[in-house]
Amino acid sequence: MDDSEATSLEQIRAFLAGSDPVEFTGQGREEIYTWVEKTLVRLQYSGLDRGGKGLVRRYLGRMTGLSRAQVTRLIAGYRRTGRVIAVAYQRRKFATQYASSDLDLLAYVDKAHGNLSGPATKRILEREYSEYGQAAYQRLSGISVAHLYRLRNSAAYRKRNTSYQPTRPTPIRIGERRKPQPHGWPGYLRIDTVHQGDQDGRKGLYHINAVDQVTQWEIVAATPQISELWLLPVLEAMLGQFPFVIRGFHSDNGSEFINYSVARLLEKLLIEQTKSRAHHTGDNGLVESKNGAIIRKHIGFGYIDAQHAEAVDHFHRQHLNPYVNFHRPCAVPKIITEANGKRRRVYLRWATPFELLQEAAHCEKLLRPGVTLDTLTETARAQSDTEAALAMQRAKRQLLVRVGKRGA
Fold first, then answer.
1. Any bridge partners for residue 249, and if so which?
2. What is the pLDDT of residue 93?
3. 3-state secondary structure of 321
4. Which residue, 239, 240, 252, 236, is CA-closest to 193?
5. Helices marked H in 6-144 — which ranges?
6. Continuous H helices in 131-227
7. Which pLDDT score is estimated for 17?
8. Domain-terminating residue out of 28, 48, 81
9. Residue 277 in 3-state DSSP?
10. 140, exposed or middle or buried, with CB in 10 Å at 0-12, 13-18, 19+?
11. What is the pLDDT of residue 279?
12. Residue ranges making up the domain that contains 40
């Protein structure tokens, strides 16, 4: 900036009277401060009267863009020292109590003991100095547990001792982890998913299998994906296909069912949600056995593209589900308690899910609104068991040809 013409107070007063704004285009704070110092020397600031000093202050503020308080500070420094110098910022620092050698020693102890807790490590450091006379531990023997953790979290320590921990699972407060207790009432479902394979990086469709614990009434559906967008409508449709009111919903701990969207759906329908317990592999054994006996037996293990999910779901709804529930007998378990208190299941009887539903106490009162026992009986007697099986097999062959599983 060139302001060599402003050498008198009259010129400065005329300059300040102008209306054009002025911007100092210096390269930084040092250049601004250098210009301020030269201007104060050129105008002999110390010898000016009160009015002249105020004029110079306004001039410096206009030219540099600094605030009135900052200009005052610069002038005060100039009057004390005769210079206008940028003072470097002095950050307050605390004294360092533990040296680099202490970090090396702490990392050495942690490696030797396998990274114990802070209190345990502190006690070891105290014992090394007080009981075993190791002078190198003198400073570390007085360290607090909190500061010990601070040192462990520092970058310098992590360079000396890096430890890795596996990802810790986050508990999800959805569903109660216990085995359902239906007490002989239908409406307590066991549910699971069955994946129909992968091919060339493409996911196949998914079957959703739901089985009632008491009557073994089974509803199977198909969906292209098990994401929230696809799964929730399928679950609502499945729950509506059961002839009785649903009271319980039990699944394993998979995220397709243990999530807030499914929890909200079940809460809206007043359905109790439970999930399998740890170390109890048989908690969801009923539906898992049906996965093999029904879905794998009739659909197989081969890949079916997700685009065929609608056709497969139509087959389940119109053919497989009616056949399974009205015409396919299933084993009825009976619990026998031995003399030593051990319980075991025996299968002495076979019956269809519809027959088991009819045997339930007050079965008509358990039915959903709009469903009557006469309607279910009419559906069961529309075809014989073998006729229903043959019709289901014909529909299955047509479906498998359509989805490209001719050899199934």
1. 189, 273
2. 75
3. helix
4. 252
5. 9-17, 29-42, 50-64, 68-81, 100-113, 118-130
6. 145-153, 155-160
7. 81
8. 81
9. coil
10. buried
11. 84
12. 10-81
Per the CB < 8 A criterion, the answer to whether 205 and 305 are in contact is: yes
Q: Is-contact 34 26, C-beta < 8 A? A: no
- Is 26 a domain residue? yes
Do 130 and 189 sit in the same domain of this protein?
A: no
| DSSP annotation string for 218-252 | EEEEEES--SHHHHHHHHHHHHHHSSB---EEEE-
Residues 72 and 105 in one domain: no
Instruction: Give the C-alpha separation, 60 to 42, whole Å.
Output: 13
Q: Which residue has the tokens 């394993």?
A: 252
Q: Spell out the residues 6+ positions from residue 177 whose beta carbon is closer than 8 angstroms to its own.
A: 274, 275, 276, 277, 278
pLDDT for residue 227: 86
Tokens 């807030």 sit on residue:
260
Do 238 and 216 touch, CB atoms closer than 8 A? no
For the chain, the domain total comes to: 3
Per-residue confidence (pLDDT) for residue 5, from 0 to 100: 54
pLDDT (0 to 100) of residue 408: 45
Among residues 242, 146, 150, which one has the least CA distance to residue 191? 242
299 burial (CB, 10 Å; 0-12 / 13-18 / 19+) is buried
- Let me know whether 126 and 188 are in one domain: no
Strands 206-212 and 218-223: antiparallel
**Mean pLDDT for each 10-residue chunk of the chain (408 residues)?**
65 75 65 88 87 89 88 89 81 82 92 91 93 92 93 91 76 83 91 92 93 95 90 92 94 89 90 89 88 93 93 95 94 89 89 93 89 93 94 94 70
Write b or e for each residue in 246-274: b if 16 or more Cβ atoms lie within 10 A of its Cβ, otherwise e: bbbbbbbbeebbbeeebbebbeeeebbbb
CA pair distance 194, 288, nearest whole angstrom? 9
